[in-house]
Amino acid sequence: MHRSAIVLALIAALLCVNAAAQAAKVFYFNVNEGAGPHDVAPAPDGTVWYTAQLQGALGRLDPKTGKAEQIPLGPDSAPHGVIVGPDRAAWVTDGGRNAIVRYDPAAKKVKVFPLPQDFPNANLNTATFDRKGILWFTGQGGVYGRVDPATGKVEVWKAPKGAGPYGITTTPKGEVWYASLAGDHIAKIDTVSGDALMVPPPKPGVGPRRIWSDSKGLLWVSFWNSGEVARYDPMAKSWKVWSLPNSKTGCYAVYVDDKDIVWVSDFTANAILRFDPTTEKFQSFPSNRRGAAVRQLNGRPGEVWGAESGTDRLVVVRERP
Protein backbone atom coordinates (compact mmCIF):
# COMPACT_ATOMS: atom_id res chain seq x y z
CA MET A 1 0.00 0.00 0.00
CA HIS A 2 1.32 3.47 -0.93
CA ARG A 3 2.13 5.89 1.87
CA SER A 4 -0.62 8.27 0.69
CA ALA A 5 -3.17 5.46 0.86
CA ILE A 6 -2.06 4.63 4.40
CA VAL A 7 -2.40 8.26 5.44
CA LEU A 8 -5.87 8.48 3.91
CA ALA A 9 -6.91 5.28 5.70
CA LEU A 10 -5.69 6.67 9.03
CA ILE A 11 -7.56 9.93 8.46
CA ALA A 12 -10.73 8.00 7.61
CA ALA A 13 -10.37 5.94 10.78
CA LEU A 14 -9.92 9.06 12.90
CA LEU A 15 -12.97 10.65 11.29
CA CYS A 16 -15.03 7.57 12.09
CA VAL A 17 -13.93 7.65 15.72
CA ASN A 18 -14.69 11.36 15.95
CA ALA A 19 -18.13 10.84 14.34
CA ALA A 20 -18.93 8.13 16.88
CA ALA A 21 -17.87 10.43 19.72
CA GLN A 22 -20.11 13.20 18.38
CA ALA A 23 -23.06 10.88 17.73
CA ALA A 24 -24.51 11.42 21.19
CA LYS A 25 -24.99 14.37 23.52
CA VAL A 26 -25.74 14.57 27.23
CA PHE A 27 -28.34 16.91 28.75
CA TYR A 28 -29.28 17.55 32.39
CA PHE A 29 -32.54 18.64 34.02
CA ASN A 30 -32.84 19.90 37.58
CA VAL A 31 -35.62 18.52 39.79
CA ASN A 32 -36.68 19.55 43.29
CA GLU A 33 -33.80 20.14 45.66
CA GLY A 34 -33.55 17.26 48.11
CA ALA A 35 -35.76 14.98 45.99
CA GLY A 36 -33.17 12.23 45.73
CA PRO A 37 -34.46 10.97 42.34
CA HIS A 38 -33.96 7.22 42.10
CA ASP A 39 -35.61 5.59 39.07
CA VAL A 40 -36.96 7.01 35.82
CA ALA A 41 -39.55 5.94 33.25
CA PRO A 42 -40.05 7.80 29.95
CA ALA A 43 -43.78 8.14 29.24
CA PRO A 44 -45.57 7.83 25.87
CA ASP A 45 -46.45 11.53 25.88
CA GLY A 46 -42.79 12.61 25.94
CA THR A 47 -42.59 13.37 29.66
CA VAL A 48 -40.44 11.41 32.10
CA TRP A 49 -41.58 9.96 35.42
CA TYR A 50 -39.12 9.73 38.31
CA THR A 51 -39.30 8.67 41.93
CA ALA A 52 -38.45 11.42 44.43
CA GLN A 53 -37.41 8.90 47.05
CA LEU A 54 -36.35 11.35 49.76
CA GLN A 55 -39.54 13.43 49.47
CA GLY A 56 -42.12 10.64 49.23
CA ALA A 57 -43.34 11.70 45.81
CA LEU A 58 -43.67 10.76 42.19
CA GLY A 59 -42.09 13.30 39.87
CA ARG A 60 -42.83 14.20 36.28
CA LEU A 61 -40.44 16.12 34.04
CA ASP A 62 -41.38 17.84 30.80
CA PRO A 63 -38.11 17.88 28.82
CA LYS A 64 -39.49 20.49 26.41
CA THR A 65 -39.88 23.11 29.13
CA GLY A 66 -37.56 21.70 31.81
CA LYS A 67 -40.39 21.94 34.34
CA ALA A 68 -40.66 19.23 37.00
CA GLU A 69 -43.70 18.65 39.20
CA GLN A 70 -44.15 16.21 42.07
CA ILE A 71 -47.18 14.25 43.27
CA PRO A 72 -47.16 13.24 46.98
CA LEU A 73 -47.76 9.51 47.40
CA GLY A 74 -48.97 9.52 50.98
CA PRO A 75 -47.71 9.11 54.54
CA ASP A 76 -44.34 7.36 54.99
CA SER A 77 -43.82 7.11 51.23
CA ALA A 78 -40.29 6.34 50.01
CA PRO A 79 -40.66 5.30 46.37
CA HIS A 80 -37.88 3.34 44.72
CA GLY A 81 -38.86 2.17 41.24
CA VAL A 82 -41.30 3.45 38.63
CA ILE A 83 -42.45 1.99 35.32
CA VAL A 84 -45.17 2.84 32.81
CA GLY A 85 -47.89 0.22 32.60
CA PRO A 86 -49.92 -0.97 29.61
CA ASP A 87 -52.61 1.40 30.93
CA ARG A 88 -50.15 4.32 30.61
CA ALA A 89 -50.31 4.85 34.37
CA ALA A 90 -47.18 5.16 36.50
CA TRP A 91 -46.63 2.12 38.72
CA VAL A 92 -44.38 2.62 41.73
CA THR A 93 -42.64 0.23 44.12
CA ASP A 94 -42.93 2.15 47.39
CA GLY A 95 -40.70 0.79 50.15
CA GLY A 96 -41.92 3.33 52.68
CA ARG A 97 -45.57 2.38 52.28
CA ASN A 98 -44.73 -1.30 51.71
CA ALA A 99 -47.06 -1.20 48.75
CA ILE A 100 -47.35 -0.97 45.01
CA VAL A 101 -48.73 2.44 44.09
CA ARG A 102 -50.49 3.35 40.85
CA TYR A 103 -50.86 6.94 39.69
CA ASP A 104 -53.36 7.69 36.93
CA PRO A 105 -52.21 10.91 35.20
CA ALA A 106 -55.56 11.37 33.45
CA ALA A 107 -57.68 11.10 36.61
CA LYS A 108 -54.88 12.41 38.84
CA LYS A 109 -55.59 9.67 41.36
CA VAL A 110 -53.32 7.54 43.54
CA LYS A 111 -54.29 3.93 44.21
CA VAL A 112 -52.43 1.79 46.74
CA PHE A 113 -51.96 -2.01 46.66
CA PRO A 114 -50.55 -2.92 50.11
CA LEU A 115 -48.54 -6.08 50.60
CA PRO A 116 -50.09 -8.73 52.90
CA GLN A 117 -49.53 -8.05 56.60
CA ASP A 118 -47.30 -11.12 56.96
CA PHE A 119 -44.76 -9.50 54.59
CA PRO A 120 -43.80 -6.27 56.41
CA ASN A 121 -40.70 -4.27 55.53
CA ALA A 122 -40.23 -5.89 52.12
CA ASN A 123 -38.00 -3.00 51.01
CA LEU A 124 -39.71 -2.90 47.64
CA ASN A 125 -37.42 -2.32 44.73
CA THR A 126 -38.33 -2.76 41.05
CA ALA A 127 -41.28 -3.87 38.91
CA THR A 128 -42.05 -5.23 35.44
CA PHE A 129 -45.20 -6.21 33.57
CA ASP A 130 -45.45 -9.63 31.98
CA ARG A 131 -47.16 -10.22 28.64
CA LYS A 132 -50.51 -10.90 30.37
CA GLY A 133 -50.59 -7.51 32.08
CA ILE A 134 -49.59 -8.79 35.52
CA LEU A 135 -47.12 -6.66 37.47
CA TRP A 136 -44.21 -8.50 39.11
CA PHE A 137 -42.00 -6.88 41.73
CA THR A 138 -38.98 -7.46 43.95
CA GLY A 139 -38.13 -6.54 47.53
CA GLN A 140 -34.60 -6.53 48.93
CA GLY A 141 -36.02 -7.76 52.21
CA GLY A 142 -36.18 -11.21 50.61
CA VAL A 143 -39.42 -11.27 48.61
CA TYR A 144 -40.88 -11.11 45.14
CA GLY A 145 -44.52 -10.97 44.13
CA ARG A 146 -47.22 -9.92 41.73
CA VAL A 147 -50.25 -7.67 41.44
CA ASP A 148 -53.20 -8.34 39.16
CA PRO A 149 -54.39 -4.85 38.15
CA ALA A 150 -57.78 -6.24 37.09
CA THR A 151 -58.64 -7.67 40.52
CA GLY A 152 -56.21 -5.85 42.81
CA LYS A 153 -54.99 -9.18 44.19
CA VAL A 154 -51.46 -9.07 45.65
CA GLU A 155 -49.42 -12.26 46.08
CA VAL A 156 -45.97 -12.47 47.64
CA TRP A 157 -43.36 -15.24 47.93
CA LYS A 158 -40.22 -15.56 50.04
CA ALA A 159 -37.09 -15.51 47.89
CA PRO A 160 -35.16 -18.81 47.86
CA LYS A 161 -31.98 -17.32 49.38
CA GLY A 162 -33.57 -14.62 51.50
CA ALA A 163 -32.53 -10.98 51.21
CA GLY A 164 -31.42 -9.53 47.90
CA PRO A 165 -34.04 -9.44 45.09
CA TYR A 166 -33.38 -6.21 43.19
CA GLY A 167 -33.73 -5.71 39.42
CA ILE A 168 -36.41 -7.49 37.38
CA THR A 169 -37.20 -7.83 33.67
CA THR A 170 -39.55 -9.43 31.17
CA THR A 171 -38.21 -11.11 28.01
CA PRO A 172 -39.91 -10.90 24.59
CA LYS A 173 -41.33 -14.40 25.21
CA GLY A 174 -42.89 -13.27 28.48
CA GLU A 175 -40.42 -14.87 30.88
CA VAL A 176 -39.83 -12.92 34.11
CA TRP A 177 -36.35 -12.88 35.65
CA TYR A 178 -34.94 -11.06 38.67
CA ALA A 179 -31.44 -10.38 39.98
CA SER A 180 -30.53 -10.84 43.64
CA LEU A 181 -27.76 -8.60 44.91
CA ALA A 182 -27.30 -10.10 48.37
CA GLY A 183 -28.36 -13.56 47.19
CA ASP A 184 -25.71 -13.53 44.43
CA HIS A 185 -27.83 -15.10 41.70
CA ILE A 186 -30.43 -14.45 39.03
CA ALA A 187 -33.72 -16.34 38.96
CA LYS A 188 -36.53 -17.17 36.57
CA ILE A 189 -40.00 -16.90 38.05
CA ASP A 190 -42.62 -19.46 37.08
CA THR A 191 -45.43 -17.01 36.33
CA VAL A 192 -48.06 -19.68 37.03
CA SER A 193 -46.87 -21.24 40.30
CA GLY A 194 -44.71 -18.35 41.50
CA ASP A 195 -41.70 -20.62 42.06
CA ALA A 196 -38.23 -19.18 41.41
CA LEU A 197 -35.51 -21.17 39.61
CA MET A 198 -32.08 -19.88 40.61
CA VAL A 199 -29.13 -19.53 38.24
CA PRO A 200 -25.70 -18.92 39.82
CA PRO A 201 -23.32 -16.33 38.34
CA PRO A 202 -20.16 -17.47 36.52
CA LYS A 203 -18.15 -16.86 39.69
CA PRO A 204 -19.29 -16.28 43.28
CA GLY A 205 -19.51 -12.89 44.93
CA VAL A 206 -20.17 -10.68 41.89
CA GLY A 207 -23.44 -9.23 43.26
CA PRO A 208 -25.96 -9.20 40.38
CA ARG A 209 -27.91 -5.95 40.84
CA ARG A 210 -29.98 -4.99 37.79
CA ILE A 211 -31.16 -7.13 34.88
CA TRP A 212 -32.57 -6.35 31.43
CA SER A 213 -33.56 -8.49 28.45
CA ASP A 214 -32.54 -7.68 24.90
CA SER A 215 -34.73 -8.34 21.84
CA LYS A 216 -33.46 -11.93 21.57
CA GLY A 217 -34.21 -12.85 25.17
CA LEU A 218 -30.57 -12.66 26.26
CA LEU A 219 -30.27 -11.33 29.81
CA TRP A 220 -27.87 -8.50 30.60
CA VAL A 221 -26.87 -8.19 34.26
CA SER A 222 -24.87 -5.58 36.17
CA PHE A 223 -22.33 -7.13 38.55
CA TRP A 224 -22.05 -4.56 41.34
CA ASN A 225 -19.24 -6.11 43.38
CA SER A 226 -16.91 -6.96 40.51
CA GLY A 227 -17.47 -3.99 38.19
CA GLU A 228 -18.62 -6.08 35.25
CA VAL A 229 -21.52 -6.35 32.84
CA ALA A 230 -22.57 -9.87 31.97
CA ARG A 231 -24.82 -11.63 29.50
CA TYR A 232 -26.70 -14.84 30.28
CA ASP A 233 -28.10 -17.01 27.49
CA PRO A 234 -31.05 -18.99 28.95
CA MET A 235 -31.12 -21.38 25.98
CA ALA A 236 -27.41 -22.24 26.06
CA LYS A 237 -27.25 -21.77 29.86
CA SER A 238 -24.01 -19.89 29.44
CA TRP A 239 -22.47 -16.61 30.65
CA LYS A 240 -20.18 -14.07 29.01
CA VAL A 241 -18.64 -11.26 31.05
CA TRP A 242 -16.99 -7.92 30.23
CA SER A 243 -15.07 -5.77 32.72
CA LEU A 244 -15.81 -2.05 32.88
CA PRO A 245 -12.90 -0.12 31.34
CA ASN A 246 -12.09 2.06 34.36
CA SER A 247 -13.55 0.35 37.44
CA LYS A 248 -13.26 -2.89 39.35
CA THR A 249 -16.49 -2.35 41.27
CA GLY A 250 -19.67 -0.27 41.06
CA CYS A 251 -21.55 -1.45 37.96
CA TYR A 252 -25.06 -0.45 39.05
CA ALA A 253 -27.73 0.12 36.39
CA VAL A 254 -28.20 -1.77 33.13
CA TYR A 255 -30.54 -1.03 30.24
CA VAL A 256 -30.77 -2.41 26.69
CA ASP A 257 -32.09 -0.01 24.07
CA ASP A 258 -34.19 -0.69 20.97
CA LYS A 259 -31.03 -1.39 18.92
CA ASP A 260 -29.73 -3.91 21.48
CA ILE A 261 -27.02 -1.52 22.62
CA VAL A 262 -26.28 -2.01 26.32
CA TRP A 263 -26.03 0.90 28.75
CA VAL A 264 -24.70 0.73 32.30
CA SER A 265 -23.88 3.18 35.06
CA ASP A 266 -20.41 3.10 36.59
CA PHE A 267 -20.58 4.48 40.15
CA THR A 268 -16.81 4.44 40.61
CA ALA A 269 -16.05 6.36 37.40
CA ASN A 270 -19.11 8.62 37.87
CA ALA A 271 -20.25 7.87 34.33
CA ILE A 272 -22.85 6.29 32.07
CA LEU A 273 -21.33 3.78 29.66
CA ARG A 274 -22.51 2.66 26.24
CA PHE A 275 -21.50 -0.90 25.30
CA ASP A 276 -21.82 -2.31 21.80
CA PRO A 277 -22.03 -6.14 22.02
CA THR A 278 -20.97 -6.46 18.36
CA THR A 279 -17.71 -4.56 18.65
CA GLU A 280 -17.35 -5.18 22.40
CA LYS A 281 -16.36 -1.53 22.84
CA PHE A 282 -17.33 0.88 25.62
CA GLN A 283 -18.00 4.59 25.26
CA SER A 284 -18.09 6.74 28.40
CA PHE A 285 -20.32 9.70 29.23
CA PRO A 286 -19.00 11.06 32.54
CA SER A 287 -21.16 13.40 34.58
CA ASN A 288 -20.18 17.05 34.78
CA ARG A 289 -20.71 16.96 38.56
CA ARG A 290 -19.20 14.76 41.23
CA GLY A 291 -21.22 12.08 42.97
CA ALA A 292 -23.90 11.70 40.29
CA ALA A 293 -24.93 8.23 41.60
CA VAL A 294 -27.04 7.02 38.66
CA ARG A 295 -28.90 4.02 40.08
CA GLN A 296 -31.15 3.11 37.18
CA LEU A 297 -31.45 3.62 33.43
CA ASN A 298 -34.41 3.46 31.07
CA GLY A 299 -35.19 4.90 27.68
CA ARG A 300 -37.03 5.18 24.41
CA PRO A 301 -35.72 5.23 20.81
CA GLY A 302 -32.82 7.66 20.59
CA GLU A 303 -32.77 8.50 24.31
CA VAL A 304 -31.36 6.90 27.45
CA TRP A 305 -32.53 8.42 30.74
CA GLY A 306 -31.20 8.17 34.26
CA ALA A 307 -31.60 9.90 37.59
CA GLU A 308 -28.57 11.45 39.27
CA SER A 309 -29.67 10.76 42.82
CA GLY A 310 -26.63 12.57 44.19
CA THR A 311 -27.20 15.85 42.30
CA ASP A 312 -31.02 16.09 42.14
CA ARG A 313 -30.99 15.96 38.35
CA LEU A 314 -32.25 13.76 35.55
CA VAL A 315 -29.79 13.01 32.77
CA VAL A 316 -30.41 11.96 29.17
CA VAL A 317 -28.01 10.74 26.52
CA ARG A 318 -29.48 11.52 23.10
CA GLU A 319 -28.12 9.67 20.12
CA ARG A 320 -28.31 11.43 16.81
CA PRO A 321 -29.96 9.60 13.89
Keywords for this entry:
50% strand, single chain, mainly beta, disordered N terminus, four-stranded antiparallel beta sheet, 1 helix, 321 residues, Methylamine Dehydrogenase, Chain H, 28 strands
Give a topology summary.
Layout lengths: L2 H19 L2 E7 L6 E6 L5 E5 L4 E6 L4 E6 L6 E6 L5 E5 L4 E6 L4 E6 L9 E6 L5 E5 L3 E5 L6 E5 L6 E6 L5 E5 L4 E5 L6 E4 L8 E6 L5 E5 L4 E6 L4 E6 L7 E6 L5 E5 L4 E6 L4 E6 L7 E7 L2 E6 L4 E7 L2
Antiparallel strand pairs: 1-28, 2-3, 3-4, 4-5, 6-7, 7-8, 8-9, 10-11, 11-12, 12-13, 14-15, 15-16, 16-17, 18-19, 19-20, 20-21, 22-23, 23-24, 24-25, 26-27, 27-28
The number of helical segments is 1
The CATH C-level class name:
Mainly Beta
CA distance, first residue to last residue: 34 Å
| CATH-defined architecture | 7 Propeller
Let me know the CATH homologous superfamily: YVTN repeat-like/Quinoprotein amine dehydrogenase
Rounded radius of gyration (Å): 20 Å
Helical residue percent band:
under 10%
Could you please say which CATH topology applies here? Methylamine Dehydrogenase, Chain H
Q: What count of domains describes the coordinates?
A: 1
**What does the overall shape look like?**
globular
